[in-house]
Design goal:
It is built from five helices and 57 strands. The protein is mostly beta strands. It comes from Culter alburnus.
């Protein structure tokens, strides 16, 4: 029984489960498009609503999912599928939106759903379809049309045709999604445009359709500011954002506190002394922008520019008056500022309902442009716009005239500077000059007046005044010395700064200058310098390369005293002219070039020297370059034709070249004269030198070739020597002699003076003697100095330091040893070397003849 019951229950549960799986809990499905102002021209959002019959339990919720699929109905192409996850409570009504890539009018769209949860998945609902216009169109239609899109949008257009028609081959509609609908590729629009047209043409037909879309931006305005200009209304303005690109009915619409406004301006009534909120809404088809501002209107007062500005001018002041366009301005505290000729006036003006001011410290007879701007003095916010007015002040008496004097061509002239507009205080009509009791009227074009001749030597008092419609200026008096001041030393200005020694001055100094080479009676310029600036002054002339004469005067009781006078240039330039009259003079190989200086007015600076460049004719390379300070130069040149370029130079550079072509010639007569004179001079010098040398020959011999001293033996000595005499029949007689303290005898005939101690003689043939002698070795390399020897055989005093012995001679008696006794030593001279015939141990020898 129990088994059957258990099986029945299990079978019942299985049946119930199968029944739940086949059931369809989704009910009341509704498919529709979202309605907008332009949805008939192209609907993009598909809405799906349904009800789920399976509800959660009391106060229970569970997660449920729904699968949604969208198809193009006619072709049953799946275009979208999505799973929606919701938490289902007691409410079983659900809503889902889907934005289509093409307008929903292009073709029918079908939707189906199914429910899935953790227990089971339901079956698909039947298809619920939103019908497109491709089913019932009777003419060509293009969607979307007349719609507004954001810049950067990608839009797909569709074209619905009649049956059996296809788009033309050049059309952009290339893809078919139903029997009568074709779509384009996604078209990108990256710039704003008031209209963009898309056309759909049909093959074989003149009919076509089209669409226009508008590309732009949503509103982007900012900075809403509300102010009051008259305390009765509020004027709100804002900064415009980027151009939306939309015009006409699609333009941006502005509303301020619900009131439609003009572009960038809106006016509302003001509520003084009360904080007010202003809200601006800017709206177009692409979006909405909201701006707000909050303030008390009395704290946002921005006055308009003063109106009806008028003036009352005087010589040094003016009164300005204006009016306001506010009804209650008289009690409103204001502050005003003034701009005078483009610069701010040195003070501001304030007061309730301020409508007039006075400007002082103005220049007489001057043109002025005045601008006035005002604002709230209690709660200052901003200055108003500028109002302006132009006027001219009245004339006033002129300032004192600056007077000076000048000596010129034995006359004395009084000079004065013309007054400028600020100094004249009006239009100068004349000058009045007073000399003593005489008064003269001088026209306005005269600034230099001759007051005396060179015959007058006394000081003169001169007074000069200027006159305009307001009257005469204060007189200017100058005392002109009665003596000329040109008898002074003129120095050179070495720099741009001038200095002078201190001089007791009661009224300062005067620096005077004028062009040195173009002096006229009225070309003088001057500058008066206070006494406190006596140490230095600056050159004020502007003309470079112009030579000026500058004088410095000290002023004592209005009487000028000349201190110094100089000449110089403000800035030196290169000479503008060339040297003059370039010539050459030849004297043999010497050529003298000479020339005149550059004209004074063309020097443009102090001439520092001249540059001479020498070229050989036909050559571009100089053979000589010479710089000289004098206007002449001497050159040594070979014969030939030369070109010379001579240019003067200053510290500013070199001037132009003066050119001379010169042919150097050497004449025969000059060559002969030069040769004879040269030879004669050389001969005369040689004769003079010869005579002097002859007369001074002993002195020259002693200076150039002094005698060589003979060697001497000091002390007592004794020697034995051999003395030979030529005999008849070929025999020689030789004797050995002993000599004391005497020189060797020179010859047999000159034996006087010898102290002979002993004598031994031997005869032997002379031939045999000479033969033996010639055969004896001659290896002695050094001998003592010569003694006096005879023409025949001479004897030599033996030098005891060498221990020399006389060689043995055949057939001759042995010569006794020579002995030398010396008390002092003897140093032989090193230059006497003899390699001829030598007799050893002999004091005399005879050199062998060559």
């Amino acid at each position: 029984m129990s088994v059957w019951l258990l099986c029945a229950l299990l079978f019942s549960l299985i049946c119930q489960t199968e029944q739940d799986g086949r059931s369809l809990p989704i009910k009341e499905v509704e498919v529709y498009v979202e309605k907008t102002n332009t949805s008939d021209l192209g609907a993009w959002v598909l809405n799906v609503k349904w009800r789920d019959e399976l509800k959660a339990g009391n106060n229970e919720s569970r997660k449920v999912s729904y699968d949604v699929e969208v198809y193009y109905t006619e072709q049953m192409w799946s275009v979208h599928s999505e799973t929606i996850h919701v938490t289902q409570g007691n409410t079983a009504l659900h809503h889902w939106k889907w934005t289509s890539p093409i307008p929903l009018q292009c073709t029918s769209h079908s939707v189906r759903l199914r429910r899935r949860d953790q227990y089971h998945i339901s079956e698909w609902t039947p298809l619920y379809t939103y019908k497109g216009e491709d089913l019932s169109a009777t003419r060509i239609k293009v969607f979307p049309r007349d719609q507004v899109f954001m810049v950067g949008s990608n839009i797909t257009f569709c074209c619905i045709l009649e049956k059996e028609n296809v788009p033309s081959s050049d059309s952009e509609f290339v893809k078919r999604i139903s029997n009568r609908t074709y779509i384009t590729k996604s078209l990108h629009f990256d710039s704003p445009s008031s209209n963009s047209d898309i056309r759909c043409d049909v093959n074989g037909s003149s009919y076509s359709g089209g669409s226009t879309v508008f590309i732009g931006y949503p509103p982007d305005d900012h900075s809403l500011t509300c102010v009051t200009r008259n305390l009765t209304s509020v004027e709100c303005r804002w900064e415009m954002g980027r151009d939306t690109g939309l015009r006409g009915v699609r333009r941006t619409i502005y509303t301020l506190n619900g009131r439609v406004c003009e572009i960038n301006k809106c006016v509302l009534p003001a509520v003084p002394n009360q904080v007010t909120n202003w809200t601006l809404i800017a709206k177009n088809d692409l979006g909405v922008k909201t701006l707000t501002d909050t303030a008390d209107p009395t704290h946002r007062v921005l006055l308009r520019a003063p109106s009806k500005l008028s003036h009352t001018a005087h010589a040094r002041s003016v009164t300005l008056e204006w009016s306001w366009d506010m009804t209650n301005c008289t009690s409103f505290p204001m502050i005003c500022r003034v701009m005078l000729n483009g610069s701010f006036y040195n003070k501001t003006f304030s007061g309730k309902g301020l409508s007039s001011i006075v400007l002082d410290h103005l220049q007489p007879f001057a043109n002025y442009t005045v601008n006035v701007s005002c604002g709230s003095d209690e709660h200052f916010y901003k200055w108003s716009e500028w109002s302006n007015i132009t006027f001219t002040t009245k004339e006033d008496i002129p300032e004192a005239v600056d007077v000076w004097f000048k000596y010129f061509n034995q006359n004395t002239y009084v000079l004065w500077k013309p007054l400028n507009q600020q100094q004249s205080h009006g239009i100068i009509t004349q000058y009045e000059l007073t000399k003593g009791k005489r008064r003269e009227i001088i026209g306005i074009n005269t600034l230099c007046y001759n007051v005396t001749t060179g015959n007058e030597r006394s000081d003169q008092n001169i007074t000069v005044s200027a006159k305009n419609s307001a009257g005469l200026s204060l007189p200017t008096t100058i005392i002109i010395p009665g003596y000329p001041d040109n008898e002074v030393h003129i120095s050179r200005i070495s720099s741009r700064n001038g200095e002078w020694e201190y001089f007791n001055s009661t009224c300062g100094y005067v620096v005077e200058w004028f062009p040195t080479y173009t002096e006229k009676q009225c070309t003088v310029q001057w500058k008066k310098i206070p006494e406190s600036e006596h140490a230095t002054w600056y050159h004020t002339w502007k003309q470079n390369g112009e030579k000026y004469t500058v004088s410095v005067y000290a002023c004592n009781e209005n009487k000028p005293v000349l201190l110094q006078r100089s000449e110089g240039y403000a800035i030196e330039q290169k000479p503008s002219g060339r040297v003059q009259d370039l010539k050459g003079k030849q004297n043999g190989r010497n050529l003298e070039l000479y020339w005149n200086e550059v004209p004074l007015q063309q020097q443009k600076g102090f001439i520092q020297g001249y540059k001479v460049i020498t070229f050989l004719s036909g050559s571009k390379t100089p053979v000589n370059t010479t710089v000289t300070k004098e206007p002449r130069v001497n050159l040594i040149l070979d014969p030939g034709t030369y070109t010379f370029h001579v240019s003067a130079f200053t510290s500013g550079g070199y001037g132009g070249n003066a050119t001379l072509i010169f042919n150097m010639e050497i004449k025969i007569f000059q060559m002969i004269v030069t040769t004879v004179v040269g030879c004669s001079a050389a001969t005369l010098v040689f004769i003079i030198i010869t005579v002097l040398c002859y007369r001074k020959r002993k002195w020259l011999k002693k200076l150039l070739y002094p005698d060589i001293p003979k060697p001497k033996l000091a002390g007592k000595w004794t020697t034995k020597g051999m003395y030979c005499t030529q005999m008849t029949e070929g025999y020689m007689k030789c004797e050995i002699q002993e000599v004391h303290g005497s020189e060797c005898p020179a010859t047999a005939e000159s034996t006087h003076g010898l102290d002979l101690i002993s004598s031994n003689s031997t005869l032997f043939p002379a031939k045999h003697f000479y033969q033996n002698i010639s055969e004896s070795p001659a290896d002695v390399s050094y001998y003592p100095p010569l003694l006096l020897c005879a023409q025949k055989l001479t004897s030599i005093i033996e030098n005891p330091s060498y221990n020399m012995t006389i060689p043995e001679l055949d057939n001759v008696a042995q010569i006794s040893e020579l002995t030398l006794e010396m008390q002092d030593s003897y140093l032989p001279a090193p230059n006497f070397v003899q390699k001829d015939f030598v007799v050893k141990d002999s004091t005399c020898y005879k050199p062998q003849s060559a």
